[in-house]
Write a structure and sequence with these properties.
Layout lengths: L7 H20 L5 H9 L5 E2 H8 L3 H13 L3 E5 L7 E5 L1 H22 L4 H20 L4
Antiparallel strand pairs: 1-3, 2-3
Helix pairs in contact: 2-5
Length: 143
């Protein structure tokens, strides 16, 4: 079987290119794709760090390291939850909010550029296939 005939090869190849594009853009602002993704997933009322990893499909170790770096750079702050002191919520600082806006605009610009090259039906089919693939990988034992 040729790599081009597999399911994972084109996904990996395209994701690598997308990642490179986002990282190149993020580097202009001193960030990375991972930092941008975290910024976009922090809710205005704060998000418990334990919810961020699963929400983004990120490993706990990578997330902890990235959050520590983001805190050192003044992008986020950790605040104990008012009702449950065991829970620590991640909040965006003013600097983090500004970088979140840049991240959001970059994602919107990328999506508009890509989606403009496909019909709505093609985009719908793509989303359906990716959703079903995600479901298979999440709920079925393949090996």
């Amino acid at each position: 079987m040729k790599p081009e005939e597999t399911i994972d090869f084109p996904i990996r190849k395209v994701w690598s290119r997308i990642s490179r594009i986002y990282n190149t853009e993020a580097a202009k602002y001193g960030g990375s794709m991972a930092v941008g993704q975290i910024l976009l997933n922090i809710e205005p009322e704060g998000t418990p760090s334990t919810k961020l990893g699963p929400k983004m499909g990120m490993e706990a170790r990578s997330l902890v390291r990235t959050l520590r770096t983001m805190e050192d750079e003044g992008l986020i702050k950790r605040i104990a939850d008012k009702s449950d002191k065991r829970v620590v919520r991640i909040h965006l600082s003013a600097k983090g909010k500004a970088l979140r806006t840049v991240s959001r605009n970059t994602v919107i610009q990328f999506n508009q550029a890509v989606q403009s090259r496909f019909t709505p039906e093609q985009m719908n089919n793509f989303r359906q296939v990716m959703s079903e693939l995600d479901h298979i990988l999440e709920h079925e034992q393949l090996f």
